[in-house]
Amino acid sequence: MKEDAIIFLCGTGGHKEQTKRLRLILExxxxxxxxxxxxxLEKNTNLENMDKSYEILPVRxxxxxxxxxxxFPQSVFSSVIITLKILFKYRVKLxxxxxxxxxxxxxxxxxxxxxxxxxxxxxxxxxxxxxxGKFMYRIADYFIIQNIELKEIYPKAIYGGRL
Amino acid sequence: MNIFVTVGTTPFDTLIEAIDTFNFKERLNxxxxxxxxxxxxxxxxxxxxxERINEYxxxxxxxxxxxxxxxxxxxxxxxxxxxxxxxxxRIDKHQDEISNYVYKNNYGKVCYSIKExxxxxxxLIECNIDLEKYTKVDFFCTKMIExxxxxxxx
Lengths: 163, 154
What we know:
The complex is a heterodimer. Chain A is 36% helix and 23% strand. Chain A has 4 helices and 7 strands; from the N terminus they run E-H-E-E-H-E-H-E-H-E-E. Chain A has helices spanning 14-32, 68-89, 104-112, 131-139; strands at 4-10, 36-42, 52-56, 91-97, 116-120, 142-145, 158-159. Chain A has a 7-stranded parallel β-sheet, sandwiched between helices. Chain B has 6 helices and 6 strands, in the order βαββαβαβαβαα. Chain B has helices at 13-20, 53-59, 69-77, 95-105, 117-126, 142-152, and strands at residues 2-6, 29-33, 45-47, 62-66, 81-85, 109-110. Chain B is globular, with a radius of gyration of 17 Å. Classes of the chains: A alpha/beta, B alpha/beta. The A-B interface holds A 4, 6, 12-14, 16-18, 21, 25-26, 29-30, 33, 35, 62-65, 93-94, 96, 116, 118, 122-128, 130, 142, 144, 146-147, 158, 160-163 and B 8-11, 68-70, 73-74, 89-92, 94-95, 97-98, 100-101, 136-142, 144-146, 148-150, 152-153.
């Protein structure tokens, strides 16, 4: 009998802080329904409040363009393997993420398997959509923005206040 | 006068060096969190990362911070006086969006030119600059997400 699990997809820096806050907000509900919190994390993120974590390789290097040539395919490969592994091991119905780009491949796989996606656009965006946000706006079942200024760019988004 | 400098998870050598080499009018107690930066400060205490960043925030009179939203929101929620320096060493330049947000609302000072950081720090110390209080609109979609969880995991 597979255990129920909800996936938190999370990258380093501000994304980790947002996921931490989100996980805390949902603590009671997840505990009461005995749903495990599984983290799919960018390497070296070390998010503490997950029941179990899996690491995938980052999509890009923030300081050096050339590293991206090999980082990108490695990241895609590790994402696919880990996402499929989790889907086989747990009863997953929902995935939540604030980005960044590591959320994309797992989101596509979750969509293929008819799982629901909640995407919360990162709190650092006010004027321009993030590249992950632009993509997720099309495929997420629920797209939440934290800054009201983004309503112009994402008219169908749900404004949710700040984490 | 305690000044704390934080660069978050990505290195920001140009900022660290600019502060380390600036000739301040008076001796300041500066501590620097430098991440994986390669520049080694010669004049002030520094470290790469800490689990206890809130303690450094509490003790500081002024915090100089990279333009990471997480750091900025944390500091504004604590009512700290801040100077934001967008990190343009990074390839993606999205740090200027939150910098503009803070600047437009006068929640803190923004230093767009790293050369001027020393002067910006001194100005903030000398003049009692009036900053607007930041009030957070708390996340209010929790109930909605809980309902989604109820539906999906019935």
